[in-house]
Amino acid sequence: MPSIESVVEPLVSLRDVHLAFAGNPVLKGINLDVYPGQAVSIIGPSGSGKSTILRCITGLLQPQRGQIRVADTRVDALTREAQRIELRKRVGFVFQQYNLFPHLSVLQNLMIAPRKVLGRNRIDAEKDARALLAKVRMEHKADAYPGQLSGGQQQRVAIARALTMRPQLILFDEVTSALDPETVGEVLTVIRELTQEGMTCVLVTHEMRFAEEISDVVYFTENGVIVEHGSAEQIFEHPANERTREFLRHALGAPARRGPIVSDPYLLTNLSRYSLSV
Amino acid sequence: MAIESVCMALLQWSPALIAGFGQNILISLLAIGLGTVLGLLVGMLALSPWRLLRLPARLWVQVFRNAPWLVLIYFTTYVFPFEIHVGSAYIPFPDWVKVTIGLALPASANVAEILRGAVASIPGTQWEAARSLAFSRWQIAVSIIMPQCLKRMLAPWMNLYAVVTMGTALASLVGVHDVIDTAQIASNTVNLTGFTVLVYLSLLVLFFAYCYPISRLTQRLERRYAFY
Fold first, then answer.
1. Contact residues, chain A, for B136 at CB < 8 Å
2. Contact criterion met (CB < 8 Å) for A88 and B134
3. Contact, B151 vs B225, CB < 8 A?
4. Which of A81, A88, A145 sits opposite B133 (nearest CB)?
5. Cα A179 to chain centroid, rounded
6. pLDDT (tens digit, 9 = 90+) per residue, A128-165?
7. B162: exposed, middle or buried (Cβ count in 10 Å: 0-12, 13-18, 19+)
8. Distance in angstroms (rounded) separating the CA atoms of residues A9 and B109
9. Which of A136, A147, A215, B215 has its CA 20 to 30 A from that of A16?
10. Smallest CA–CA separation between A41 and chain B, in Å?
């Protein structure tokens, strides 16, 4: 009799995914599994292909090689736009720059996709939208326009907008990177609640403490490969790989070693962006 | 008194001048209307993902945007017949309609360019966000991109309308009885240099009085939509 673990199929699985932009390899053999109800974080230095992985999962980018599966859908084998649309109905995406629709009010931002894409009626869509706004504590701004909201508020609306499609899975692409430190917390609170409710989440993030706190599994990527993955405790407390250790040391704010400053009188070390002339 | 008689003559001719200006306004309104419908159509074709639709649209824009308006007006005046047979009926095809088409062609090319510019000014992330919400390409164009474009297109479109209105002054050259033609007849009839100066000055005032409010409104709209 198979154990419980082997019965549960991963909701998302990537196998040996390769992708290059104009001959520039970005992903060089990514393997990744996300089980239903898990919160998975992808961490790593900028340019290591983290966001690209998310874009591949939702079919915004097509890998050149490898397999991507979301539930029963082979994403890499999709050829028609209609098939990708079916996939995206089930996969939510939240962007770093929020990307709300500026010509629509907050409520309309939440209603447009269910109405146009899922064909739901106005009354149901509005009821849902208001409930989701309450969930992200933005119900008082239902009639505001995105331009009138702060970054943190816009991002919470964007999360609610992704939820209106009732996705099986939500992808978060550095959703707090454009926010000031004070508003990061309000967005993270919303994501934390989602993971506690059992929503399957994949997060690309630079918020190490947050990733450590909420993640079931953490992947560390560098230069288009998964260097190491494991439970949050394993990665953050006992990283096996030297690169992971070094990255975390910097990311978690431990003082980094710095080479001795060479006192060359001709080296203009005091130049900053406030210097008036060079 | 010379000045008095000149002013009297202008007063006498003013109903005819205003009627002539009405013809100019009619041509300008029909030309911008036709040009806008055509231009949006051509503009949408030019944005199509299919080359076969895109190329003729691009050609249309390049040809009609880079042709002198007067040449296009002469062209439409002489290329169309003066009447059309439909079965046994003869439908007249007056010169002013030909001029309207002659102005609508470059207007359509400009509207198509205004549309292209507006679509290009919408950040690609709007497309990406809508795609990730499972919108189809057509749905994105209609419910996300177009509504944002309309606001941005309004000011340049009104600017174009003011230019088209001024372009209607060319209609007199192919024999349309518009305000310029009326002014010519008036100045020949009265045959006083002072009157000729005055009548053309009044044309300037007429066009200015019509176009200036449009350009002011355009400026206000531009300021209003400069920021979201």
1. 81-82, 85
2. yes
3. yes
4. A88
5. 14
6. 999 999 999 999 999 999 999 999 999 999 999 999 99
7. buried
8. 56
9. A215
10. 20
B155 touches B214 (CB < 8 A): no
The answer, yes or no, to whether residue A243 has pLDDT greater than 50, is yes
Between B212 and A256, the more confident residue is B212
User: Is the pLDDT assigned to residue A5 strictly greater than 60?
Assistant: no
Q: In chain B, whose CA is at the least distance from the CA of A119?
A: B135
Label each residue of A13-53 as H, E or C. Answer: EEEEEEEEECCEEEEEEEEEEECCCCEEEEECCCCCCHHHH
Residues 6+ apart with CB under 8 A from A30: A14, A16, A17, A49, A53, A66, A221, A224, A225, A226
Do the Cβ atoms of A113 and B131 come within 8 Å? no
Q: What is the pLDDT of residues A20-75, one digit of tens each?
A: 998 899 999 999 999 999 999 999 998 888 999 999 999 999 999 999 999 989 99
- Residue pair A9/A73 in contact (Cβ under 8 Å)? The answer is no
Determine, for residues A113 and B148 on separate chains, whether the beta-carbon distance falls below 8 Å.
no
CA distances to A85, A207, A245, A259, B96 from A177, in Å: 28, 9, 22, 29, 61
Domains identified in chain A and CATH numbers: 4-251 (3.40.50.300)
CB-nearest to B135 from A86, A116, A146 is A116
Whether B132 and A89 lie within 8 Å, measured CB to CB: no
- For residue A113, the chain B residue with the least C-alpha distance is B133
Q: Does B124 touch chain A (CB under 8 A)?
A: no
Burial class (CB in 10 A: 0-12, 13-18, 19+), B130: buried
Chain A residues touching chain B at CB-CB below 8 Å: 58, 60, 81-82, 85-86, 88-89, 91-93, 95, 97, 99-103, 112-113, 116-117, 145-147, 161-162, 165
Is B132 within 8 Å of chain A by CB?
A: yes
Residue B57 confidence (pLDDT): 95
Q: Looking at the complex, does the CB of residue B228 fall below 8 Å from at least one CB of chain A?
A: yes
Question: CA torsion B70→B75→B76→B80, rounded to 10°?
Answer: 160
Q: What domains appear along chain B, each with residue ranges and CATH number?
A: 2-224 (1.10.3720.10)
Q: Per-block average pLDDT, block size 10, for chain B (228 residues)?
A: 83 92 96 96 91 94 94 91 80 89 96 94 94 94 91 89 94 91 92 91 94 88 68
CB contact under 8 A, A101 and B133: no
User: Is the pLDDT confidence value at A270 over 60?
Assistant: no
Contact A60 B132 (CB under 8 A): yes
Q: In whole angstroms, how far apart are CA A262 and each of A24, A155, A256, A265?
A: 36, 45, 18, 9
pLDDT band at A264 (very low <50, low <70, confident <90, very high): low
Q: Say how far apart CA B12 and CA B24 lie, in whole Å.
A: 20
**Pairwise CA distance, residues B24 & B162, whole Å:** 12
